[in-house]
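// run 5 | inverse folding | seed 20
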């Protein structure tokens, strides 16, 4: 299964452990640009299809999770933080 491009780029730009900036991503949401809407749609897709594996995320975000359940719990926390004003997610590492 292919990981959506905008999700991949968002991971690199905002969620990599060397560049962890979910606050900046969250700040872009009120502007509702075409880009942020595309990121949200693709984030929804990833959460629904579970197309991101633990290995993929480790390679692209430099964050290692023990299993997919933990990874997807974390991704849902990121989603809730960015798009639904949830609490700031805490990384595993």
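// decoded
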């Amino acid at each position: 299964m292919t990981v959506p491009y905008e999700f991949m780029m968002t991971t690199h730009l905002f969620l990599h452990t060397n560049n962890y900036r979910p606050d900046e991503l969250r700040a872009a949401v009120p502007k509702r640009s075409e880009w942020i809407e595309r990121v949200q749609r693709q984030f929804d897709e990833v959460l629904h299809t579970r197309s991101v594996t633990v290995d993929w995320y480790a390679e692209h975000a430099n964050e290692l999770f023990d299993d997919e359940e933990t990874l997807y719990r974390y991704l849902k926390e990121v989603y809730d933080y960015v798009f639904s004003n949830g609490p700031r997610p805490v990384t595993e590492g």
